[in-house]
Design goal:
12% of the residues lie in helices and 47% in strands. The chain has helices spanning 135-144, 149-161, 163-170, 269-279, 282-295, 299-305; strands spanning 2-7, 10-16, 19-20, 25-32, 36-43, 49-52, 55-59, 68-76, 79-88, 101-106, 112-119, 122-128, 130-132, 183-200, 216-229, 234-247, 259-260, 264-267, 313-329, 332-345, 348-361, 380-383, 386-392, 396-397, 404-411, 417-420, 434-438, 461-464, 469-475, 486-492, 499-501, 503-508. The longest helix has 14 residues, at 282-295.
Length: 509
Amino acid sequence: MHKRTVFSPVAGQILVGGKPVAELEVVQRFSWLSVDDGEAHTKTDAQGRFAFPAVSVRKLRAPKDVLIEQDIEVRYQGKQVSLWNLIKQNTDLEGELGGPIELVADLDQPSRELKIPVAADSVAVLNGVATPRLPYLEKWERIRGQVTAQGVGRALKAFLASAEGMKGLSGFFPAIGDEHLRVAEVVSVQEVQLSDGFLFAEPESGHYAVREAPRFVGFTTRAQVGVRLESGEELTAKFFCWNLLLPLDAEGKPKYQATISDRWEVDTRDFLRQRAERALVPARVTALVRSCLQTNPGEDFLSAFGAKTASALSIEAAELKEVQVQAAKDDWALLSVFGQARGRAGKREAQHSFQGHLSVALASLGKPEYQLAAGQQAPRFEVYRFQVSLETDKKVYELGEKIVLIFRVENLMDSEQRFLKWHTPFEGFRNDFLDLQRIGGATVRYQGILASRAPPGEDSYLKIGPRQTATSQIEITEAYPVAERGDYVLRYKGLPQGILTGETRFSVR
């Protein structure tokens, strides 16, 4: 049997507004897998001091994963105040912080989270109002107090303007077709935000200076970076890196010579998306979509056209009504398309509305034929099986008048389909399924039932014949009280089930 420490000795002092508090009851608790649990009580003395001895258990062997929850709290002015909350992941004496636990807690201060290195590659996360007295934290507070966001901004600008930085920046500005986007200059670095700071013994990320003299201070860093392209265009992008390091001189003062020891990135996605949108040629997107529908239509497309395999389906025509660049990153763009396809499976011919997503190589936007982006997700297409249309019984209402919605569901398929009645007027108001907004104003909040359900049964579905329409009416002011005059737009936000939906508008005078 081995002696295992579940809570190392603790000494502390409790203050309020900087003054010690006597006769406060302090409670210590621990729990190891809900098997070895314990609780101890003590009171503060005239100087506000308290102490708990080490708590150990005897085990033949410790579990592979040690997770011991530790808590120390006091009751002050009718409230439980947490001084210490930590998950200990070992059974070593003084294994919590790598040294003696000596706390000071001012109950006037808010609770906070402290991340404290306890070894070269591990960090303890402590929550509560107490602060440990540790040499590491003393060094950290002194060095952190000398670091300014302005100084980091200057250092970051110098790094990005260096040969290494400019080479890194080029990766976030890929070619779009024949247009090469090259960075000519780093114009500015602003709005620098520093978080998760640590002292490091080595420039490699994760080698913390726990007991050694620190040689670097590092932060997770965010900033706004302004760049000018060779075309003369200027833009602002978001900068992020996990670990921006500043070296320390012989006296422990930070020098503003930024080193980045981990990955960093500049967010140019919005810029690339806009550029890709401008470069798109709709006819070329249509040709790529038709080719993808023919070679890899997907199960949803095959079942809609009545084909069992891709070779059994012939896409005779595709027409796109809408093409959008949803996102762009690195060297590819994600396109969202909406349109109609006409196809034949054996003797059966059908035409269906569909939506799809496909990733396109940005460099191919300058070529006669667009190409799918390598390594990205395969194109995905979904047939719209239903179309929901909305209409109110009038276009203009008096304030306080009932507003009736006419809700139509059309089966767009050549076979009978089932439509889930949940979140529709076919079952009344049992959920928030409409989006009602005053144009230029606020959204009208739902004030009805929010039903909790089991999985849907057969009676939860509405059967609609091929190319047929089902209609329901409901008074929307029962659950969406319209209290202001103005122009309104109403949309359906039902469950995802292959629905093509529209909107309707009305006025309240």
